[in-house]
Amino acid sequence: MMEREIGYIRGDGIGSDIWPVTQDVLTHAVKLSVPGAQVTWKEILVGERAYALTGEYLPCVSLEEMKRLGAIIKGPLTTPIGGGYRSINVTLRQELKLYACIRQFTWIPGVPSPLRHPEHVDMVLFRENLEDIYTGIEWQYDAEELKELRDWVKKTCGRNIPEDAGVGIKYISRSGTRRIVRKAIEYAVRHGRKKVTIVHKGNIMKFTEGAFCKWGQELAGSLDIEAPVTVDDCLADNMFQQILIRPREYSVLVTPNLNGDYLSDALAGMIGGLGVCPGANVGDDAALFEAAHGSAPKYAGKDKANPTALILSGAMLFEYIGWPEAARLVRQGISGVIRKRVGTYDLARQNPEFTEVGTREFGEHVIMEMEQIAGSCVPAE
Ligand code: NAD
Questions:
Q1: Pairing relation of β-strands 167-168 and 138-139?
Q2: How far apart are the C-alpha atoms of 110 and 337, rounded to whole Å?
């Protein structure tokens, strides 16, 4: 018996709707496709559930447990805007050194899309996860420390930062750039993809975004790549146009943190919305798999949210731990159900041909589909 312990974070908001369904689908996929394998799901307390039970949003023991397990799947976590606590999502990525946010944008036939040819969209985005303007080094406009910074900027650059301006620090390092670009190129080589595009705003932010492009190109030039992979670059604003009008020309994108955040949601919209976009945050020692969407509090507890993105994140996790057959079965199961025009409200409201089902029922359909594909019927426990 091949046993594998996998950590899970249930998540806030719709996490309590989509996680149990995802867990069921993934457990069935393993049973149906990996002979002798079994998953032991280990809950890790993080977010509102952790706070309710322990008084902390991110208990130290949870972090230690994640480091021990190495592979974790998580539901979305709520972050209040403005004040309140720091984003747990960002903290997790930093604590576990998950420097690569990887998202797949491949259209599933049948999913309603605003594009005429969504089948042309097949991109994988590598977003640098730990640097840029996301490090939380920032000051409120009236912070005492800002006075010194304002004086220093005035003295060294001759520029004024207005008295009523909050300030954040953006930094991008050579080492951080090299490791994310390397990951993107290695992925392209492994998956037979022909082009990697470095997306940046280097015409304006020369020493951060411009350097990201330069260091990325330098790294690409120094690698001994056997497969024919071209590495080019594109300005971030132009990239938003390119993905819409010439999606077939792009395959793997690699971006600094903020550009990647925006581009992810634009690409998600092109293939049918956040409800169907899986993702992973990967470092050298651990990986955290999660949907691109957030906790959508409006739909929490209503059995309405689409679990597809989290289920497909589970497929990425299976590939990561070396169970590609389980990953394939999960994807086939989802595609099969959507091909029959069965889906949650987000898909059904865009296409009247869809039969609308709730979160749980959608999961049951996926399991039935996987059972048919696998040619056997394993009763749910
Ligand atoms: P969101 O992704 O939670 O929701 C935006 C809208 O997208 C929802 O109102 C809903 O219409 C739709 N949507 C999202 N997921 C869906 C699903 N599975 N099925 C169907 N429809 C879905 O974004 P938001 O409202 O900006 O953020 C809500 C909270 O989630 C915030 O606190 C934010 O910080 C957090 N967030 C967390 C993560 C994460 O955990 N990785 C990512 C993004 C946002």
A1: antiparallel
A2: 10
Is 140 in contact with 296 (CB distance < 8 Å)?
Answer: no
What is the spatial distance between Cα 359 and Cα 93, in angstroms, rounded to a whole number? 28
State how far the Cα of 233 lies from the Cα of 123, in Å rounded to an integer: 15
Per-residue pLDDT reduced to its tens digit, 314-363: 999 999 999 999 999 999 999 999 999 999 999 999 889 999 999 999 99
- 210 Cα–ligand 1 center, Å: 31
Matching residue, tokens 């390092």: 173
CA-nearest of 290, 291, 292, 286 to 321 is 286
Residue whose Cα lies nearest atom 43 of ligand 1: it is 294
Best residue among 22, 58, 295 to mutate for probing ligand 1's pocket (most ligand atoms within 8 Å of CB) is 295
Q: How many CB atoms are closer than 10 A to CB 235?
A: 18
User: Which SS3 state, helix, strand or coil, does residue 278 take?
Assistant: strand
Q: How far is the C-alpha of 305 from the C-alpha of 291, rounded, in Å? A: 12
Ligand 1 atom with the shortest distance to the CA of 87? 34
- In whole angstroms, give the CA distance from residue 363 to residue 375: 18
Q: Residue with the nearest Cα to atom 40 of ligand 1?
A: 76
- What are all long-range contacts of 352-360, with beta carbons under 8 Å and residues at least 24 apart? 354/112, 358/303, 358/304, 359/17, 359/18, 359/21, 359/303, 359/304, 359/305, 359/306, 359/307, 360/20, 360/21, 360/303
pLDDT of amino acid 381: 46
**How do residues 107-164 score in pLDDT, each as one tens digit?**
999 999 999 999 999 999 999 999 999 888 999 999 999 999 999 999 999 999 999 9
**Which residues are identified as catalytic?**
134, 201, 237, 261
Shortest-distance Cα residue to atom 10 of ligand 1: 296
pLDDT (tens digit per residue) in 32-83: 998 888 999 999 999 999 999 999 999 999 999 999 999 999 999 998 665 5
Which protein residue's CA is at the shortest distance from atom 11 of ligand 1? Answer: 296
Pocket of ligand 1 (CB under 6 A): 14, 76-79, 89, 274-275, 290, 293-296, 298, 305-306, 309, 346
CA-based nearest residue to 10, from 19, 21, 23: 19
**Which tokens is 183 given?**
């990951």
